Amino acid sequence: MPPRGVKPGTKRARQYEHIKQSEQDQGASESRAEEIAARTVNKERARHGESRAASRTSTGDRLSSGERGGRRSGTGRAKGRTRDQLYAEAKDLGVEGRSRMNKDQLLHAVAGKKGARS
Fold first, then answer.
1. pTM score, whole prediction
2. Residue ranges of domains in the chain
3. Name one Pfam family in it (predicted).
4. d(CA 20, CA 30)
5. Which of 13, 20, 76, 101 is in Cβ range 3.0-4.6 Å of 37 for a Cys bridge?
């Protein structure tokens, strides 16, 4: 369900559904996908003057949500797929024992399985 103030059939409603589906395809739960989609749509609405109130962080970013593309600010760690995304990919590839693997183990298992497929 799109955020309040977004009418069905509008660009923002389609954007919400597209983002939600994309997040689910990447392994996010439905509730997490809905949260990410709603936050993204609300931020875009604020940037384009479509909402009543907007925070400085919503309108002050130099990059739009689409341009940022998942970059995490303020962290020194490597940017990459989440454990949930890797788990979903391992499931698609049929990796055995994936439920007991941590992120690093999943990364190696997925890479190994993809290498074996080529």
1. 0.49
2. 11-68, 83-117
3. Rho_N
4. 8
5. 20
